[in-house]
Design a protein that fits this description.
Elements lengths: L2 H9 L12 E12 L2 E9 L10 E2 L2 E3 L7 H13 L6 E6 L3 E2 L4 E10 L12 E8 H6 L3 E7 L23 E10 L2 E4 H15 L1
Parallel strand pairs: 1-7
Antiparallel strand pairs: 1-2, 1-4, 2-3, 2-8, 5-7, 6-7, 9-10, 10-11
Length: about 200
């Protein structure tokens, strides 16, 4: 293969995240709603019937399906299904920075408005309850941030003899930050809190 052929192949590609084909892809929406003349963010408490993270606080969202035309379409569909509202009630949907986690996930967050006329009918299989938090709370409150250390543990048949240092190889410790917001009797943490923190930083600028 000559250099021109190689360069043409690269020239016609759009760069993406290396290995993204193996990542599980999710889309979420930060729903904004006007309440008593003030902007609020709407959040969900995950149903206790769910296998993963029951009772945690999150935004509407879920896995991007093959029939979804885009991550944005997935965020709107999931919000519609979880809150029991028509997709037309979700307007002005815009993307913010997407996230790539150390656990093989790509998360595409969006921000959008819910029309004032909507009547929420949350899906009880997924949503235990919904509540809102004034946007000003997040603008005026810094999240508490804690470090989580992750241990590097190669599998038993890892070929230590092929790397410099062998079994004494100095693996770089892995760390991740977990964000927490405490609002009244609610604990908003993890990825949801991290997305809120990023969103707040964007609109403060």
């Amino acid at each position: 293969m000559d250099a021109n052929t190689i360069l043409k192949k690269i020239e016609n590609r759009t760069p993406s995240v290396l290995g993204h084909e193996q990542f599980a892809k999710f889309a979420v929406l930060i729903p904004m709603i006007e309440k008593d003349g003030e902007l609020h963010l709407l959040l969900e408490v995950r149903s206790q019937n769910l296998r993963r993270q029951p009772g945690d606080i999150c935004f509407p969202g879920g896995k991007i399906d093959k029939q979804d035309k885009s991550p944005k379409a997935a965020a709107i569909r999931e919000t519609s299904e979880e809150l029991g509202i028509d997709e037309s009630e979700i307007i002005d949907v815009l993307p913010i920075d997407y996230m790539v986690s150390a656990f093989g996930m790509m998360v595409f967050p969006y921000v959008g408005m819910l029309k004032e006329s909507q009547d929420l009918q949350p899906n009880p299989d997924e949503v235990g309850e919904t509540f809102t938090v004034p946007l000003n709370f997040f603008l005026e409150t810094e999240p508490k941030v804690y470090q989580v250390n992750l241990e590097v543990q190669p599998e038993e048949n890892f070929p230590h003899d092929l790397i410099a240092g062998g079994e004494d190889y100095d693996w770089r410790p892995l760390k991740m930050e977990e964000h927490f917001y405490l609002y009244e009797n609610r604990v908003i943490w993890g990825m949801t809190a991290k997305i809120i923190s990023h969103f707040v930083q964007m609109i403060r600028e």
